[in-house]
Sequence to fold (133 residues):
Amino acid sequence: MIKKVCQISLIVIMAIVIVSCKNTKQKLQEYVTTYNSTAAGFKADDVTLTTARGYINDNKIELRFETGLEPKEASKVKANTSFPKLLKEMIHKNQIPKELVEEGIQFDVYFLANDNTVLVKEVLNKESIAEFL
Fold:
């Protein structure tokens, strides 16, 4: 009798654990929602606004960092040095979760001039994230 109760309890617990686990697509949606809700408090040099978009079917998240920089060559040079540092910091603070990258989510990250011209684009995936760590 006790053995049967233990078996049934174990099955119920396993079912609850399996049902309560989030899949990658749910994590992607949750990340985008959370990121955008906290974006107003984001602080970084030259960044005036940041937003995230999720592409569930492509397993991709797009992060955009709008800046006050002019679309000039000097701005590109500055962005090429400061942007990788920003991404590294965000990975270490778990603002870009390694867990999502390891689950196959790709981050397309854009650093934009004040007219939305792309100054720098980085792609974070399983292969490239090591460069930032």
About this structure: The chain has a mean pLDDT of 86. The beta strands are 47-55, 60-67, 106-112, 118-124.
